[in-house]
């Protein structure tokens, strides 16, 4: 069966909306551009990085993320460039399996989580947005933003890009957020740091295809999965990091590789070998932005990490960005004025995104339990496995995965 692109549904009768300008061409901004073009609304995305910058970590797209892509018929190219995650396993230092969980309900039509490299996801979304008529201005640094009765971005080259609505999809350190609410909160540093890596030739046998394994080490866990397309190995770990990494400090893969090699030295797992063979290693301090009091003005709004920074433990950062983009496009399509559309978006999204960030913070805390707490959790896991898991395998997801977007349905 051929998947047909949804037809634009424009029912707005009031203030004419002809053009949206987006600051930031990451996942949220690009998803919004794709969805706006699907709704028949012109859009220009301004992004400082080049289109082929290639920077980014591994991304997990849970079923709610794939649902958002299906809403605008953008899922098939993502499926083609990603691989499914059937289950996750927790491995003891002696190599025995402590526990496991399925990636999602295998009987559900919503499908399994997908895994891919962040730049590949960004490229796939951008290609589809361009095909539908979106305009991207890469290599254009934003130096100022107007968020009042008139909305526009001022660029470093002296030019301006104006629109009927301005969307700040400009990340955790959002300039647009500061313009909308100068006294608003900034992302809170959690005291942890996530390190990601990739080894095209891992030098050992990585986990089986479609499996994520988390190896318990003496000092930290080491999670790894095999790229079903290339045979390489994506991996990540989380560290306590009381001293923040400088925002302008460049990534030093050699130094990070040496630091990780020392951290996992002596562990009888694949970690030391995979790390030593990794050509890509990068780290990010973990932050959370639990709640932003003011999301928008009458003609400007923030989405994605500019609005809700979810810790990596939530496994929902990319999904929330995709949901934001598609849902905001629906609201702009359906409501008679930009002000009404932006207010509707906030009503639709606030409770959900704040709950996701809160859940992610709890996950980050659990990942850094002290040794006694870890032993108690291991005992609890073994007990559950003995009494219940043979009857009902544990599955990821729950309420976060169950979110559904009905593209044709009006939000008005």
TrEMBL record:
FAD-binding domain sequence ranges: 20-358
Source domain of life: Bacteria
MF-aspect GO terms: FAD binding; monooxygenase activity
InterPro entries: FAD-bd, FAD-dep_Monooxygenase_BioMet, FAD/NAD-bd_sf
Entry keyword annotation includes Oxidoreductase: yes
Pfam families: FAD_binding_3 (PF01494)
Keyword presence, Oxidoreductase: yes
Keyword set, alphabetical order: Monooxygenase, Oxidoreductase
Name of the protein in its database record: FAD-dependent monooxygenase
């Amino acid at each position: 069966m051929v998947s047909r692109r949804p037809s634009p549904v424009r029912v707005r009768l009031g203030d004419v909306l002809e053009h949206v300008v987006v600051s930031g061409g990451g996942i949220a901004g690009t998803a919004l551009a794709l969805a706006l073009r699907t709704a028949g609304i012109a859009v220009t995305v301004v992004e400082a990085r080049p289109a082929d910058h290639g920077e980014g970590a591994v991304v997990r797209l849970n079923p709610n993320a794939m649902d958002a892509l299906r809403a605008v018929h953008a899922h098939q190219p993502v499926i083609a460039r990603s691989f499914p995650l059937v289950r996750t396993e927790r491995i003891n230092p002696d190599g025995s399996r402590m526990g496991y969980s399925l990636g999602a309900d295998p009987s559900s039509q919503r499908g399994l989580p997908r895994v891919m490299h962040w730049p590949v996801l960004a490229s796939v979304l951008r290609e589809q947005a361009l095909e539908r008529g979106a305009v991207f201005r890469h290599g254009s640094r934003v130096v100022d933003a107007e968020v009042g009765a008139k909305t526009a971005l001022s660029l470093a080259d002296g030019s301006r890009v104006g629109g009927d609505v301005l969307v700040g999809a400009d990340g955790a350190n959002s300039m647009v957020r500061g313009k909308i609410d100068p006294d608003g909160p900034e992302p809170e540093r959690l005291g942890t740091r996530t390190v990601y890596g990739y080894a095209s030739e891992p030098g050992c046998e990585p986990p089986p295809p479609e499996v994520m394994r988390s190896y318990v080490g003496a000092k930290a866990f080491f999670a790894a999965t095999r790229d079903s397309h290339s045979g390489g190995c994506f991996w990540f770990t989380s560290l306590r990091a009381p001293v923040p990494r400088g925002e302008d400090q460049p990534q030093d893969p050699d130094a990070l590789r040496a630091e990780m090699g020392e951290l996992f030295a002596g562990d009888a797992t694949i970690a030391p070998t995979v790390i030593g063979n990794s050509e890509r290693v990068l780290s990010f301090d973990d932050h959370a932005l639990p709640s932003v009091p003011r999301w928008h003005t009458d003609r400007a709004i923030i989405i994605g990490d500019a609005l809700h920074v979810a810790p990596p433990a939530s496994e929902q950062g990319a999904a929330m960005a995709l949901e934001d983009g598609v849902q905001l496009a629906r609201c702009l399509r359906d409501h008679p004025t930009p002000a009404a559309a932006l207010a509707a978006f906030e009503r639709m999204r606030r409770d959900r995104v704040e709950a996701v960030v809160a859940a992610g913070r709890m996950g980050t805390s659990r990942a850094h339990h002290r040794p006694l707490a870890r032993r108690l959790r291991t005992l609890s896991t073994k007990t559950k496995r003995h009494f219940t898991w043979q009857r009902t395998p544990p599955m990821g997801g729950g309420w976060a995965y169950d979110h559904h977007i009905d593209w044709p349905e009006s939000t008005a």
